[in-house]
Amino acid sequence: MTAMIEATLTKRYGGREVLSAARLEVAAGTVHALVGENGAGKSTLVKIIAGIVRADGGSLAIGGTNVDLGAWDRRRARAAGIGIVQQHGASAGTLSVVENAVLGAEGGALLDLAPTAKALEALGAKVGLPIDPWARADRLPLGAAQRAEIVAALHHGAKLLILDEPTAVLAPVEVDGLLATLRTLAKGGTTIVLVTHKLDEVRAVADTVTVLRAGKTVGTFGAPLEVATIARAMVGAELPPPSSVAEPAGDAPVVLALEHVGVAGALPSARPRGRFAGLREAFSGEKRQDAPAPRENVPLADISLVVRAGELVGVAGVDGNGQRELAQAIAGLVPHTGGVKLGGEDISRASAGERLAAGLAHIPEDRHHGGLVLEASIADNLALARRDITGRFAIDRARVRRFAEEQIRSLDIRPTDPEARAAALSGGNQQKIVIARELSRPHVRVVLASQPTRGVDLGAVVRIHDRLRAAAAAGAGVLVISADLDELLALCHRVVVMLRGKIVGERAGAALQGAEARSGLGDLMTGAA
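The structure assignment produced for this chain is given below.
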């Protein structure tokens, strides 16, 4: 079988080798999964192949033709038929979906976008990923933005399509549709490289799997694919069994109560500044311009919900159905109507900082814009808004470092240097920083976790879930908002479903067990029920 990719690549950042002669060989017309722990080098490897990052050494052949790694860039990769959809997106925010689709691909003094827009819309409908080609990219929810990039990549008919965590924000029926589309594309001759942490998807769609660990290729596996074997290769050991938390009694105290909460109209920005925007600007020296309010985001409409001490409650829904507004209303990041009570205390008029002080731990949906200062160190990010660590009047650097070292060990954050910049870490390790900071707060009454394991590897998922369960076992109420239905089914005592800004259903106990649970919740998420 002809090889579409033959790569042996090395890459260093500073003195750290993130790829060490990592090898990837992908047969033409197949679906090839690339898996590994966070920081294993997966994204770096595919970015080199796509011409986004330049290798420090090695070799690369596309379709049997050797390329000059010293001159290999995005333009040459596109000309060679390589398309990539990155985990955090690469669209020019102020442009529309159709303008992003033609950016760098078509030219001319006068550009007629209408035919391309029509083609994109038709293709999106065909593959089950409906898009608005005229919507501005920075006004789209994360899931819709990612879907638009997938459709644009398919529109250009790449011979090699690289997808980095493409299903992270899709509903179950959309995931099934996308995987079916990938199989159809492969049968038609398109080569697919799928970077993912979801081994059930790997088993469902991949012909071959390559596993990276610590920047090296540790194995390539063909059919029949054994999930346990792949997981063991990823982490280098057996995964520990998940912990469990008994469902609280029905008379357990209510720690979070939402009473007819609403968010009228659209949000102030598509991707809000978050709690640390000012610090982010201070570190980078640039002031970030927030986008105008998105018309695509769904406002909240009369949400009432309680979470009891020791309870894990999930919020399911296709991305963009009001989950973001719900989290921001609870966290005090947007104006809202109705009441929010934390441990019986009315915090409806409290600021975001006052809500944290009252016992709220908040893991935001978008770690880059709401959870981290990327230009700052791991240690400084772990200490953000943590006066219990930094001290009130003067920062205790020794204490901050000790705290950082403890959290780095606890969640296996890589690299282990507390002074490493957060921007240099993989997405999963960045997420671990946010998780560690928020879940180690003292006197936590409520944990608000939005997409807590998005883009995170299997070992880290186990650690993060254990941290959330430990918070519940200690008496906190835990509200988990996730587009990953399997995560909610594995983690939560009760799951509510949001659609168009409203809660449209709830399942608990035995109704969350068995194959019917997933399909039933999926029907609620898409409105089929």
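Interim note for the steering committee: The longest strand covers residues 16-27. The CA atoms of residues 39 and 425 lie 7 Å apart.
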